[in-house]
From TrEMBL:
This is Cytosolic beta-glucosidase. The keyword Signal applies. The chain crosses the membrane at residues 540-561. Pfam families: Glyco_hydro_1. It comes from Xiphophorus maculatus (Southern platyfish). Keywords: Glycosidase, Hydrolase, Membrane, Signal, Transmembrane, Transmembrane helix.
């Protein structure tokens, strides 16, 4: 999970302790000891390009990320996901890790070009790719772990990008529906939880506005809105296809995973700041959630983008328009809402004049700020602000009729140089964020499950392997990509087994015990370079010496033979 590098202003803030945000009316309360409802589902997540590797193996086609990552200068240290965690070959080992953690569900994505190399079902279905996902699903179910399958986690077939312009083209709606229909056909008898798109905000903004992500286009002011428009319609089409063709047979659910930060007004007594914070949420989460729940874009988006488009001399708004038929078609097409959340921003009013240029960020007329006291252990954008999570969840409850929610992403990173597996900052992050989730459940928010991001360290998009979100450390220097448990594995495992935070005494012991158990993992990791060196000696040096010996023996034999003659 990565996000665009918006320039942030550090702010030493002293917000009134009595200033509650209107939507939530929640105070920043102390830690709450209690448990989640019976049947609450605990899991971890991953995505295909970030973990599978095997980028050109067994008939897989090229994705936009394969192409993008191979371009010099696009990824930190020019790294690629070509091999990544080698999850394509090690999925059985990874499921054993999940079994040890006693997880209830595992969220993963299907690589579109792995099963449809050209993106089109009519051209070729790659049965080896189908078999890989089928085996993965079967093993999960045999291990009593529920598969939660994401259909699109950013790896569009490159052919569709080259031929049609990817999500800029309305034809993607039909092509994506064909791909989804194939997945329902082959896996739907075993998969009951489907996610159409992961974080379409990133797909749209970072893929088609800033160019930081694949396909790397910079169509400022219009490309992101056009891509989002087609993604919303593609989701709705898949939902209707499933509803008409598959739901009665397979009894599954179709959702979407939307990511959003919380936006808190800098000054809760300043109406302009309150409106700016509300606008921040609507331009982020509401951009996608409001059409899918209510049938159209948020009014504030239509107002601001329309006005700025007019000021720029355009004949129509840069934000596309849904027809009355389309509004009816997309409304209510969410069986559950997947919600990804990592951090919070303070928000204040900031006017961007029309001469500033057309862009998604300028359209919002606001500035994002952070408190320098907030912890920031890894990614430059990710500050630990637990109380924002509860507020965001209550906002969803209020705005969208308290839908069924699954938290589909939540976690924290660290920078690559840190190889200490005693990740106390991650344990603290999980402790505080999951506790805010528990408070939201007590508020009546309809949350059914939580997904920690992520099972493994993986390829973090434009940051390559320089940032690590995994519960398990992956040694990318070693071609076997061994996994080493961080302390947070044991900590999260105890949250799962207790279904929450039963008592202060018990919770305080978890971190201490987790740190104690991680010391042996640190010793194994410290020995890993030596193991890698020994593997190199075994696999490269020894065969080379043997080959030289054979050649020398042959030369000596020929020399003796010539002397005899």
């Amino acid at each position: 999970m990565l996000r665009t590098g918006v320039r942030l202003l550090a702010l030493a803030l002293c917000v009134s302790a009595g200033g509650d945000f209107d939507w939530t009316k929640n105070e920043k309360t102390s830690f709450y000891f209690g448990t989640f409802p019976t049947g609450f589902s605990w899991g971890v997540g991953s995505s295909a390009y970030q973990t599978e590797g095997a980028w050109n193996t067994d008939g897989k086609g090229m994705s936009i990320w394969d192409v993008f990552a191979h371009k010099k200068g696009k990824i930190s240290s020019n790294e690629t996901g070509d091999s990544s965690c080698e999850g394509y070959y090690k999925f059985k080992d990874d499921i054993n890790l999940m079994k040890e953690m006693k997880l209830n569900h595992y969220r993963f994505s299907v690589s579109w070009p792995r099963i449809l190399p050209s993106g089109l079902r009519s051209e070729h279905v790659n049965e080896k790719g189908i078999r890989y996902y089928s085996d993965l699903i079967d093993l999960l179910l045999n291990s009593k772990i529920t598969p939660v399958v994401t259909l699109y986690h950013w790896d569009l077939p490159q052919v569709l990008q080259e031929k049609y312009g990817g999500w800029q083209n309305a034809s993607m709606v039909g092509y994506f529906n064909e791909f989804a229909n194939l997945c329902f056909e082959r896996f739907g008898n075993r998969v009951k939880h489907w996610i159409t798109f992961n974080n379409p905000w990133s797909i749209s903004v970072e893929g088609y506005e800033t160019g930081e992500h694949a396909p790397g286009l910079r169509t400022r002011g219009s490309g992101a809105y056009k891509a989002a428009h087609h993604i919303i319609k593609a989701h709705a089409k898949v939902w209707h296809t499933y509803d008409m063709k598959w739901r009665s047979k397979q009894k599954g659910l179709i959702g979407i995973s939307l990511s959003a930060d919380w936006g808190e007004p800098v000054d809760v007594s300043n109406q302009r700041d309150v409106e700016a914070a509300e606008r921040y949420i609507h331009f982020y989460l509401g951009w996608f959630a409001t059409p899918l729940f209510h049938g159209d874009y948020p009014a504030v988006m239509k107002e601001y983008i329309g006005r700025k488009s007019g000021q720029q001399g355009l004949g129509a708004s840069r934000l596309p328009v849904f027809s009355p038929q389309e509004k009816s078609y997309i409304r209510g097409t969410v069986d559950f809402l997947g919600l990804g959340h990592y951090t919070t921003r303070y928000v204040t009013q900031k006017n961007y004049p029309s001469g500033f240029g057309d862009s998604y960020f300028a359209d919002r007329d606001l500035a994002e700020l952070v408190d320098p006291k907030w912890p920031d252990p890894g990614s430059e954008w990710l500050y630990s602000v637990p109380w924002g999570f509860r507020r965001l969840l209550n906002f969803v409850k209020t705005q969208y009729g308290n839908p069924m929610i699954y938290v589909t992403e939540n976690g924290v990173s660290e920078k690559m140089p840190c190889t200490d597996l005693c990740d106390d900052w991650r344990m603290q992050y999980f402790r505080e964020y999951i506790n805010e989730l528990l408070k939201a459940v007590r508020d009546g928010v309809n949350v059914k499950g939580y997904t920690a991001w992520s099972l493994l360290d993986g390829f973090e998009w434009d940051e390559g392997f320089s940032e690590r979100f995994g519960l398990y450390f992956v040694d990318f220097r070693n071609k076997n990509k061994p996994r080493f448990p961080k302390a947070s594995v044991q900590f999260y495992k105890r949250i799962i087994s207790s279904n929450g935070f039963p008592s202060q005494r018990e919770v305080e012991s978890w971190k201490r015990k987790a740190v104690e158990t991680c010391s042996s993992s640190n010793q194994l990791l410290a020995a890993d370079p030596l193991i890698g060196h020994m593997e190199m000696v075994t696999e490269i040096v020894v065969p080379t010496i043997c080959t030289l010996c054979i050649l020398l023996s042959a030369v000596f034999f020929m020399f003796l033979l010539r002397r005899r003659l």
